């Protein structure tokens, strides 16, 4: 499977509409890839909280339309990153879109773990409740997660339990915590014996410099490719059969012990 991660720059001197056109052109340039990935909330920037409301769109809104056309022209599966979705309940959600080469909406995923503690996304957006996998015919099963989700291993385990072999993580991760990004991407790959494709943004928006450094990790935890800090397309050929080989040769996933008792508190002294 050839995967291309588009680490697009999100800067405030570019309008949402201009960036959408640029992203569509970048997707078209990836013809020949099997899977193309864009980052989290790349229309506004993940930290541009004040922009979410004005840029919010329905699931099949302008970003879906533009990306469906681009995926169709390129003949690729497209994880179009996430958009600020205005749900039919009127709430905002951080929603990822996965499109087939014919432009159909193959899957959507509302980010489960919202970032910001008691500020920003955590208060402005609703939380998703459902982990999502999507089958890419003739190749593999993708498990999807978004940015801050990377810190919650139980979500990834549920994706693996549902058959995921390639974990796709669009993000808008800040430079300030870049060491966590790399470490967590590798940890999720090793513990789940799966590929991790983690696609971040470049540039600076809302005063938050972005880490870039999109990364592709194999099921053994080896880094197959890593981007720099600027706008870049990272293209990697994945030997997807390596997932089954790794799980067979080092069957740690089979040694899981489920349904543990609650921790017993030892009496001190
Ligand atoms: N957009 C995000 O989810 C940011 C996550 C983040 O900055 C962190 O986990 O650290």
UniProtKB/TrEMBL annotation:
SUPFAM superfamilies found in the cross-reference section: Carbon-nitrogen hydrolase
Domain of life: Bacteria
Keywords: Hydrolase
Pfam families reported in the protein's UniProt record: CN_hydrolase
Keyword Hydrolase: yes
Domain CN hydrolase: 1-240
Gene3D superfamilies: Carbon-nitrogen hydrolase (3.60.110.10)
GO-annotated molecular function: hydrolase activity
Family listed: Belongs to the carbon-nitrogen hydrolase superfamily. NIT1/NIT2 family.
Name recorded for this polypeptide: Carbon-nitrogen family hydrolase
Organism (species): Streptomyces ardesiacus
